[in-house]
């Protein structure tokens, strides 16, 4: 058993031993390979770690590159913005420095300018243009300089308290465009007291209605039974009120309104009208107009209101009629002038808004200015707008000069029409019944423009229009005059037309109207023709001798007493030859003065001849009433 076991063992040993040897060799090789593998894996791990590190570095570099690219782009944008900011602010700086310089200069004059403006608002309303200019320039300005109060050397009331856009709006609303009317408009709208407007031609009435029409204007009259109720409602709800057609006496019930007697009770503003307390709205405005041409108001009324004289004057009416004729004949000129003013005003307003926005953005900026896109864009817009406005202002001066030159060509028409209206206006002094409406007269002027003969030559067109309108005024006015006043009206027309054209010696004309009045008879030459020449007539001759063109006239009565007697006793002395050199020395007007001095009974015949010579025979032949023609042209 043991032998067999040993034998089996030996046999198995011989089989297993080689395998075990190979196994050990394999295990040894495995260990060797595993060691190599571990070494390789270690190297792989190191390489992987290195690769990860490089990848991270790569990603970091890419991120840095992207960041640098963005910074580069941002810097380019900032550089561009910086350029725009420098450029924009440089332009603004130049304009702002100029503006600041002007404002500093104006600030230095502010005390005197405010004093003049306040005085003008308070006291100049009732006066006409020439008195206003005289008082401001020759009295107030002189006194201010004497007291060394700083004021603008070229102070003008309208420029100080208004702007062209506002004035243009007023003109569109019916206010005449002359300086006098503009000053009146400022006094009405900027004065501290309610305005009482002397408005015989209803121009202020028309302007107020158009200006306040969209604001709920309430129109009242003292003859209305419920005018106080309307006034109370307007005060409470802040509506403007127009009290029209007042006389020289104002209802004492209006005193609280005129005095602005407002009391604050419990946070409310109250005004007592009669026995009733009315809540006062600060938007309330009060206007008063009268048709009286020369009213006499009490000192109390003058102290409670600002009296403003809106009575039409020749310059104002001339400017108004010039606008009408140019708008009819050359509408493109008026449209261009209107649009020019509007565009310039709009540009200036836009520029001011942009400047205010720039200052606001600069004031509110907390970070870098280069990051404020809105500021940069606003600066660019402001720069472009400033350039456009500057160019507009430069071109507008030339354009406005050209427009005014073109408009001035039509001034003779406006001047003639203005003169004729005031001839009509003066007829009220002859008879109070002669009252003529300005609106009706303007309608007649427009009718003359439409119906007068046209011509391609401007000078001929103006002559045709003046001729047509002059006779139209005569024809339409004669229908309303007494027969005894028609020749006087024609003569007034003729004299005013000649005066306007510079063809009438005003000293001679005034002598014709007033005659000679001797104030000192001690130095008067004795009458050499007492037998036939009355002392009153000799007074006329001695006073006429004092006029430039009549020196030596009274001596000629000593030289040619018989010739003067024959002339004096002639049935038609206006047609007879004057004695001596006076026949050739006198023109028709001067001959008429001699007739007026010696033969007043023949003055009407002289006047008739004078009118025929200057205007034509039809101006001394009152037209026959033609209902068909008159109604068709009305």
From TrEMBL:
Residues 6-142 form the Dynein heavy chain coiled coil stalk domain. Residues 23-106, 337-371 form a coiled coil. It comes from the Eukaryota. GO terms for molecular function: ATP binding; dynein intermediate chain binding; dynein light intermediate chain binding. Residues 168-389 form the Dynein heavy chain ATP-binding dynein motor region domain. Pfam families: AAA_9, MT. It is found in: Cytoplasm, Cytoskeleton, Cilium axoneme. Its main location: cytoplasm. Belongs to the dynein heavy chain family. This is Dynein heavy chain 2, axonemal-like isoform X3. It comes from Leptonychotes weddellii.
């Amino acid at each position: 058993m043991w032998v067999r076991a040993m034998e089996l063992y030996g046999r198995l040993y011989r089989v297993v031993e080689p395998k075990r040897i190979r196994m050990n060799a394999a295990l040894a090789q495995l260990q060797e390979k595993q060691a190599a593998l571990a070494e390789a894996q270690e190297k792989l791990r190191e390489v992987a770690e290195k690769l990860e590190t490089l990848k991270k570095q790569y990603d970091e570099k890419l991120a840095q590159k992207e960041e640098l690219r963005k910074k580069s782009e941002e810097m380019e944008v900032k550089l561009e913005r910086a350029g725009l900011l420098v450029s924009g602010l440089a332009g603004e700086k130049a304009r702002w420095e100029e503006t600041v310089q002007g404002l500093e200069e104006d600030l230095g004059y502010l005390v005197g300018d405010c004093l003049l403006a306040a005085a003008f608002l308070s006291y100049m309303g009732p006066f006409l243009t020439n008195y206003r200019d005289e008082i401001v320039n020759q009295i107030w300005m002189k006194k201010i300089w004497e007291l060394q109060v700083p004021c603008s050397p070229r102070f003008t009331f309208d420029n100080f308290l208004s702007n062209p856009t506002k004035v243009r709006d007023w003109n569109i609303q019916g206010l005449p465009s002359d300086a006098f009317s503009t000053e009146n408009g400022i006094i009405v709208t900027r004065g501290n007291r309610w305005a009482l407007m002397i408005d015989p031609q209803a121009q202020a009435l028309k302007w107020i209605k158009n200006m306040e029409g969209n604001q709920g204007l309430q129109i009242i009259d003292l003859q209305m039974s419920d005018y106080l109720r309307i006034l109370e409602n307007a005060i409470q709800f802040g509506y403007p009120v127009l009290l029209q057609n007042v006389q020289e006496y104002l209802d004492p019930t209006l005193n609280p309104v005129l005095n602005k007697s407002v009391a604050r009770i419990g946070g409310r503003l109250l005004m007592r009208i009669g026995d009733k307390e009315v809540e006062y709205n600060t938007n309330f405005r009060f206007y008063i107009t009268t048709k009286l041409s020369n009213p006499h108001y009490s000192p109390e009324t003058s102290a409670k209101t600002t009296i403003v004289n809106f009575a039409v004057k020749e310059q104002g009416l001339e400017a108004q009629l010039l606008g009408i004729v140019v708008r009819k004949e050359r509408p493109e000129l008026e449209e261009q002038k209107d649009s020019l003013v509007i565009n310039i005003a709009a540009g200036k307003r836009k520029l001011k808004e942009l400047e205010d926005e720039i200052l606001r953005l600069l004031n509110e900026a907390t970070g870098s200015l280069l990051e404020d896109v809105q500021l940069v864009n606003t600066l660019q817009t402001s720069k472009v707008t400033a350039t456009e406005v500057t160019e507009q202002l430069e071109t507008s001066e030339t354009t406005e000069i050209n427009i005014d030159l073109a408009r001035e060509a039509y001034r003779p028409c406006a001047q003639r029409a203005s003169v004729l209206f005031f001839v009509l206006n003066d007829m009220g002094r002859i008879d109070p019944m002669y009252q003529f409406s300005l609106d009706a007269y303007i309608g007649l002027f427009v009718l003359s423009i439409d119906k007068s003969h046209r011509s391609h030559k401007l000078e001929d067109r103006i002559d045709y229009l003046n001729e047509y309108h002059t006779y139209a005024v005569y024809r339409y006015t004669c229908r309303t005059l007494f027969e005894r006043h028609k020749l006087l009206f024609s003569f007034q027309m003729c004299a005013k037309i000649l005066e306007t054209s510079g063809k009438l010696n005003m000293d001679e004309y005034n002598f014709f109207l007033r005659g000679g009045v001797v104030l000192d008879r001690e130095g008067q030459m004795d009458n050499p023709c007492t037998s036939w020449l009355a002392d009153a007539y000799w007074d006329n001759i001695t006073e006429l001798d004092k006029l430039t063109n009549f020196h030596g006239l009274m001596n000629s009565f000593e030289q040619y007493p018989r010739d003067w007697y024959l002339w004096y006793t002639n049935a038609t002395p206006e047609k007879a030859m004057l004695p001596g050199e006076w026949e050739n020395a006198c023109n028709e007007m001067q001959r008429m003065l001699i007739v007026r001095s010696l033969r007043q009974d023949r003055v009407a015949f002289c006047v008739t001849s004078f009118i025929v010579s200057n205007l034509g025979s039809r101006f001394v032949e009152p037209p026959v009433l033609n209902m068909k023609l008159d109604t068709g042209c009305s």
